Amino acid sequence: MPTASPPTTTPVVDAISRIHFSGNILPHTWFQKIRLPGGHPDSIACILLSEIVYWYRSKEVADEESGRLIGWHKRFRADKLQRSSQAFATKFGYTKRQVIDALNRLEEGGYITKELRTIKTDDGTTMANVCFIEPVVAKIEAITFLATTEEQGNDEADDADPLRPTADPLRLNADPPTPERTLQETTTRDYYKGITNVGESDDSLADKVTKKKRESNPDGSYGNPDVAALKSYFKERLGLSGLDDKPAEVNRTAWNLLRKKVEGDDRPALVRLKEMIDAAAEDSFWQGKLTSLYTFSGKFNFFQGLVKKQTHAATPHRPDDLPPSTFDAVYDAYLAKQELYAENGVVWDTLKGGYVGKNH
């Protein structure tokens, strides 16, 4: 009995087909080629580039009486598209800063050119630094159409791209599968040992494709031990049960803090950071208010200054003309006063610049 052929359409397909779509075209290959420094697709730049390309696509011009196509015209008035960053931001809902950065990335990547001109409007007003934008045709073609087999072989960066089709996707010259080469039944090493004519010995290739085991720290944990130590000390010293940072960002923030350099201070970064955390914990203003590493990182210079201020306030300085014996007596009196303050709950208030009671 012959089987029924699948339907060629559905009600939803018919309904969508009746909708007239117009506007920008955004090839999916752009997301593979236009990327941020971190490797992620630069979505904002792709959308802005599609808008620019749309304005450079000529429009049909038809005869008003007969409706016959009589030619093609550009969509803008000048020799290039004039568009401000604010106009892009308003249309797509981005901030002006996001648009400026994305346009700069497109220009640096060679996808567009920008030109600042001084123009005179129809009413005679002179305007300076008006931005005119033009796409680079060769670059647009390169990221829109798939490269040839020869280009693939010369493009090392794209060799590792899993989304790019290979020159021989069906591998017509490969040996038929055998039970010994079934991926589900063998390890990665055994699978690659079953492949012949690879130009290398079986053991050499197997060693390359076998994933290296991740090494752990002496305490059994993984990752940078200083990052874990910094997070732990921050929570413990400030009396926090947890951090207000987003889980995906807290390790990155801790790592960036550990990488900060301080001119003239060659101590380990973790030692400096613990000193700054101590200063925050001892300051009455920040007690209970500092709950995230992100806030701590943003006020890095402030807490550095707070350390210096607390150190200066807590340590008396002997004048050059004061005899050592006199200084020792003054210092002993200072220590006695500190003990008396501690017994009566008096603390140093950095903001007020003096000693106050805990209840004030």
Order of helices and strands: HHHEEEHHEEHHHHHHHHHHHEE
Q: Would you tell me the structural class of the helices and strands?
A: mainly alpha
> CA-to-CA gap between the ends?
93 Å
If you consult CATH, what is the topology of the largest domain? Arc Repressor Mutant, subunit A
Uncertain stretches: 147-174, 179-202
| CATH superfamily grouping of the largest domain | Winged helix-like DNA-binding domain superfamily/Winged helix DNA-binding domain
Q: Based on the structure, what is the oligomeric state of the protein chains?
A: single chain
Helical percent range?
A: 40-55%
Question: Which CATH-level-2 architecture of the largest domain?
Answer: Orthogonal Bundle
Large-scale geometry: elongated
- Helix run count: 16
**What is the arithmetic mean of pLDDT?**
74
Within the largest sheet, what's the order of strands?
3-5-4
- Please summarize the sheet with the most strands: 3 strands, antiparallel
Count of discrete domains: 4
CATH class placement of the largest domain: Mainly Alpha
- Radius of gyration using CA atoms only: 34 Å
How large a portion of the residues is in β-strands, by DSSP E? 5-15%
What is the number of E strands? 7
